[in-house]
Amino acid sequence: MDYRQILKEENEAVKERWQLAAERLESIAGNPEVEGNLGAYFQKTAGFLLFMMELQKKLAEGVFENASLEELQTWNQRLYEDVTGEAYAYSYANPVYAVQQLTQEYGQILSFVYTELRGLIVYAYEQRLEEMLIRMELFLQIYSEFTDEVLPTREQLRSDVYWFISDYSDVSVTWRVREQLDPRLSFARDIIMEADLSDPRYLYQFGEYITETELRTSAYLNRLPEEEIQKIASVFTEGYRIGFEVNQKPLWKKKTVNIRYCLGFERIIRQAVKNFEQMGLESIIYRAAVSRMNMREANKIGYYSTSPNKQYDYDHKGDAALFMDKAFVERKVGVLRTAYESYKDLAAVHGGPAVLEIFGEIPFEPKARPEALRLNEKQQANQVLLNSRTGQITNEYIKGDERSFTIIAFPVPDIGEQFEEIFAETVKINTLDYQTWQRIQQTLIDALDKGKAVHIQGSGANRTDLTVALAPIQDPERETVFENCVADVNIPVGEVFTSPKLTGTNGVLHVTGVFLDGLFYKDLTLTFQDGMVVDYTCSNYEEEEENRRYVRENVLMHHETLPMGEFAIGTNTTAYVAARKYQMGAKLPILIAEKMGPHFAVGDTCFSWEEDVKTCNPDGKCMVAKENERSTLRKEDVEKAYFNCHTDITIPYDELKEIAVIHSDGSRTLLIQDGRFVLAGTEELNLPFEESTGFKLS
Fold first, then answer.
1. How far apart are CA 585 and CA 583, in angstroms?
2. Digit-coded pLDDT (tens) for 74-91
3. Both ends of the chain: CA-CA distance in Å?
4. Letter string b/e over residues 368-395, b meaning 16 or more CB atoms within 10 A of that residue's CB
């Protein structure tokens, strides 16, 4: 049974409701019973919904199959025009405008409704009529509230939204689980494997917002020789395979892999699908969620394209404030468990994600909008609880000790005129000789294993002064504290990393500027006491309260505190010099940036959910630092052990005065001084600095 046949029965079941909704929408769009600004909102929104129904019909009839590139671009622009550019200032999707036009009482909620309805764009492309219909019915319910003699209260509207989210979670959440596990839901994979990728029209089949970024990326990859595409895809897929091998996990038990990527890279993804098939794995490629029901704030998990407006995304990251209470948490957790139980056989053979990230997008520093919805403290606690419970359920059905992953990153044309040169340089970085790094990194590990702590100190404007405590070693011949990480699951090489001992980890971590998950932080500062964050701030905003809120929401992920889950020393000086050469350091993803200096993760360790799985370095020594004083609580209370987040923060070499191993007798061994590797046996890492013409570390 293919994708369309699976949907046929579902779509047939809603036809009668669909027709009733269409008739009512036509009436509202023609002559709304509500007057004034509210009437204008309902009329415009009803018109948009009718447009979505027209879109769905045209797609079902195959009208666009022979459309010209210009026609497809015109349609794509129409679909997203109200949230792009200057138009967003006058869009109901903008909570500022919505509050101005529709009052504080109604504006936030009606802006949320409008935003939720915009999800119909992708549901129309996927021919998911039930998802379209339930949102149209939400709109009609909201509209009916305003046709009574007495205008509704804000609480009445919030209640309508709450019960829509709660009642239909069994539809949307269940489908979300299924599309992550069932390879028969092949909407995107069918396009990737069957379309003519040399014809840019294929990009418009996904229903995503298509820009010059996607078009130029696709065109560039189409110019590369087939052997180059195979080389890139093989590095990606081999990293996934090796991840199972080195961690002694049973790849032979697995039948599916999830590929996550950004549009434009289809030629690489097509080859990756073929490579995975040779491993016995069927690829699952699902879209990043578009409904707040399945979204985790602004994070995108799945495939997606360039955002039509990052401020729009940011303005709605807190929309769960309309329904995030304890009852909703219990409702969603219950539906999630039921869904996983229904698809437990598929979950048992799922191997985990293979992720192709991008970098080079235009940096984004969000504006704080008081009109935007935000979670209050109680709701933040509920969000944390929901993340914890969903993480536990996912791990129960897709077991952490049996799954793996891989991540790789490539630039997009937004990075500048030297895009093609930078892309070639990135391929070089992603294919560096891992044996060289393995040998040098082992030298670092040998020195680190002799210490009880590591001291990290910044230079110049960097105020870092931090001591990281290390787990003790009982048997130096067989045990190690640091993992020797080369290019397997985490591409490119190289880093050595550990789970710090929390007790004794104290001091200040500071970076002058850093991008984390697409958001910029100026003077990000975290203070640690016994491994836990006790203070935090940045200097993005004039008001200190706003700075702390920004860090709390986007780095601490609504937790009051987080532990230091990882300490690592990045060794990829080749990547660092390339970043300086092309002035792209601020645009690099953490995947590469973390290899360009010491980095520290707040949240879970790298070994969460698989602490009891044996992990050994190539020299045969096994890791003894796979957990800390918080993760060990999993044996008593899982919710106290895991935080379901892991955010890496890197200090670049040029902001680094020293990294030194501290021994039990108080003596010190320098590893890095003034941004250069000084430990005997690691000097080779400095060669890229010396070979780069005119390079200066400062």
1. 6
2. 999 999 999 999 999 999
3. 61
4. ebebbbbbeeebbbbbbbbbbbbbbbbb
In this model, does residue 208 exceed pLDDT 60?
Answer: yes
Grade residue 697 by pLDDT with cuts at 50, 70 and 90: very low
Q: Which residues contact 141 (CB under 8 A, 6 or more apart)?
A: 160, 164
Pick from 566, 546, 570: which is nearest to 675 by CA?
570
Answer yes or no: is pLDDT of 695 > 50.
no
- Tokens found for residue 680: 């005997």
Cα gap 679→677, rounded to integer Å: 6
Confidence of residue 504 (pLDDT cuts 50, 70, 90): very high
d(CA 19, CA 7): 18
> What's the helix, strand, coil split of the chain in %, to 5?
50, 15, 35
When mean pLDDT is compared across 163-167, 499-503, 527-531, 589-593, the lowest value belongs to 589-593
Q: For residue 357, how far is the Cα from the chain centroid?
A: 9
What are the DSSP calls for 315-351, one per residue? HTTTGGGGT-SHHHHHHHHHHHHHHHHHTHHHHHTEE
pLDDT at 488: 67
Token representation of residue 230:
């195979």
Q: Is the preceding peptide bond at 603 cis, omega within 30 degrees of 0?
A: no
Computed on alpha carbons and rounded to an integer, the radius of gyration of the chain in Å comes to 26
Question: Rounded distance, CA 362 to CA 356, Å?
Answer: 18
Q: Residue 494 is which amino acid?
A: G
Q: Which helix (H) or strand (E) holds 626?
A: none
For residue 669, list its beta bridge partners: 661
The residue-averaged pLDDT of 124-142 equals 97
- Three-state DSSP at 418 gives coil
Q: Which two tokens stand for residue 189?
A: 């994979």
- Over residues 370-397, mean pLDDT: 92
Q: If phi over 0 gives left and psi between -120 and 50 gives alpha, with beta otherwise, what is residue 555?
A: alpha
* Torsion sign, CA atoms 89, 90, 91, 97: positive
The tokens describing 590, both together, are 């953490």
| Contact status, residue 501 vs residue 531, Cβ threshold 8 Å | yes
Residue with tokens 């195979």: 230
Question: How many degrees, rounded to 5, is the angle at CA 23 between CA 132 and CA 16?
Answer: 60
Task: Determine the Cα–Cα distance for residues 557 and 328; give it in Å rounded to an integer.
Answer: 19
Distance in angstroms (rounded) separating the CA atoms of residues 582 and 567: 28
Q: Tell me which of 16-25, 264-273, 341-350, 400-409 is least confident.
A: 400-409
Q: Is 148 helix (H, G, I), strand (E, B) or coil?
A: coil
Q: Which two tokens stand for residue 203?
A: 């990009």
Highest mean pLDDT among 363-367, 449-453, 485-489 belongs to 449-453
Which pTM value belongs to this model?
0.89
Sheet containing 676-677, strands listed edge to edge, beginning at the edge strand earlier in sequence: 532-537, 519-529, 501-516, 465-469, 453-458, 656-662, 668-673, 676-677
What 611-614 contacts at long range (C-beta under 8 Å, 24+ apart), as own/partner pairs, is: 612/401, 613/247, 613/248, 613/249, 613/401, 614/248
Please state the rounded mean pLDDT for residues 665-688.
94
pLDDT digits (tens, 9 = 90+) for 36-80: 999 999 999 999 999 999 999 999 999 999 999 999 999 999 999
Confidence category of residue 443, pLDDT binned at 50, 70, 90: very high
Phi, psi of 434 (to 5 degrees): -70, -25
